[in-house]
Amino acid sequence: MSEGISQPDQPQTLEGHAGDKDLFSKFDDIIAMRQGLLDSGVEDPFNLVMEKVLSPTRAICNGRETILLGTYNYMGMTFDPDVVEAGKQALADFGSGTTGSRVLNGTYQGHKDVEEALKDFYDMDHAMVFSTGYQANLGIISTIAGKGDYIVLDIDSHASIWDGCAMGNAEVVPFKHNDIEAMEKRLRRIPEDAGKLVILEGVYSMLGDVAPLKEMVAVAKKYGAMVLVDEAHSMGFIGEHGRGVVESADVIDDVDFIIGTFSKSVGTVGGFCVSNHPKFDIMRLVCRPYVFTASLPPSVVATACTSIRKLMHGSNKRAHLWENSKNLHKGLKDLGFQLGTDEPQSAIIAVIMPDLQQGAAMWEALIKNGLYVNLARPPATPANMTLLRCSLCAEHSEEEVGEILEIFEKSGKAVGII
Amino acid sequence: MDRAEVDAKIREIAEPFNKKGVTITEDTSFQNDLEFDSLTVMDFVAEIEDEFDIIISMNQQAEIEKYGQLVDAVTKMQAD
Ligand SMILES: Cc1ncc(COP(=O)(O)O)c(C=O)c1O
């Protein structure tokens, strides 16, 4: 599941009504819902402007100095001096953009370098860099699962996974979130000779919970399925080398494809797929979202490359991020908030709100008290919950986590949630 | 199982999902009349799949709008 924009990850079909000439009529319900929220007088949660960014954890938002607790900047690499320097150098040496596709004039030395860095980071044979993580899922899924093949996926999958399924021609079979038995039943019923792709995420970003990958990958292999795991929210942080839940669950050798993004721990923009499949390189010719779009600017791949190589040695930062996650989780629980998981499982802590009205009021109280979190609301959320999603950063100090808890206490009491 | 038996079984499964107690006919629409959202659809479909030991992929679900179409599809699938 994704960033809690006001639409579900699984694509909906909005139907026009006979006689409507304005193609926008089908959005009337959404327009009314949004207006209703704004009319109740709250600050628009989806229209925040950061006028100045001071560090990975601080910004001036709508005129106020604000602690950032909802940016997925897990490892705080965005202001790392080496990373920034690499970007400046590449901008000077290679210019502001490639103006071309990876398969034509858009592959510079930097694109090869960042792919080498990914191969080293994951200890895998192949790495392919896309312009975003969204496009990596879109491209890989729609290309490898074709007509007559089956995709078996978790119902809480990210929008980019659903859209990859929608763009391809495979049969799509979802199962209940993190339910091993439901997944196995579906695999068992698929014709034995059909091609099968199981798609999982290491960390699900709505509740911050982790998938039981050990069991799920074993089941997938038992039925001869290939396995793709999206590790967008675990890179650099979970597993001994930061390779993700696939590493901490010790299944990385059984996983066929790992999808990731540069937009979270790496601290820039871009997406990738790594794999040991011997024929993987052919993707560069057949994967349309790779071929038919311009490649990342040289400065972006240079910052990504430097950041990834630094993340390989990030074990101290990783340990501190875990501390932050544990402290925030315990503090919020002690304050009486209802959380998405009983124990902290990742760097995402989801605070469950009683309803959308109070959730929006709480979000506004937090932002006015100087704290930015991510508001996720129905229908984008599992079980139509309203969530305040907090994502921690390795650069949050212990004191800052204390400050965050104070803001939560003050705001929660003002709104009447605790 | 013949169509009538499949129909009876699916009616039984649909009962707890039919929160508003809509009278289900062959022409009842899942989206418009029963107002199933995507999570309800998943749970409902999963129960049918388990009962008949079949798979109804999302691609197949997209072709099914009305109750009668579902009974037809399941009758055919479980006979194969
Ligand atoms: C699970 C998951 N996959 C893929 C993406 C897409 O990444 P990107 O921001 O690089 O497009 C995201 C986040 O946006 C995500 O949460």
What descriptors fit this protein?
heterodimer; A: 418 residues; alpha/beta; Aspartate Aminotransferase, domain 1; Aspartate Aminotransferase, domain 2; 2 domains; seven-stranded mixed sheet; four-stranded mixed sheet; 14 helices; 38% helix; 18% strand; B: 80 residues; mainly alpha; Non-ribosomal Peptide Synthetase Peptidyl Carrier Protein, Chain A; 4 helices; globular; binds pyridoxal-5'-phosphate
Largest sheet of chain A: 7 strands, mixed
Largest interface: A-B, 21 and 15 residues
What general outline of chain B do the C-alpha atoms trace? globular
Number of helices of chain A: 14
Spans of at least 5 consecutive residues with low confidence of chain A: none
CATH class of chain B: Mainly Alpha
Mean pLDDT of chain B: 94
Structural class of chain B: mainly alpha
CATH class of the largest domain in chain A: Alpha Beta
How many DSSP E strands of chain B? 0
Number of helices of chain B: 4
What distance lies between the first and last C-alpha atoms of chain B, to the nearest angstrom? 11 Å
Shape of chain A: globular
Number of strands of chain A: 17
Superfamily at the CATH H level of chain B? ACP-like
What is the CATH architecture annotation of chain B? Orthogonal Bundle
What is the typical, i.e. mean, pLDDT of chain A?
Answer: 95
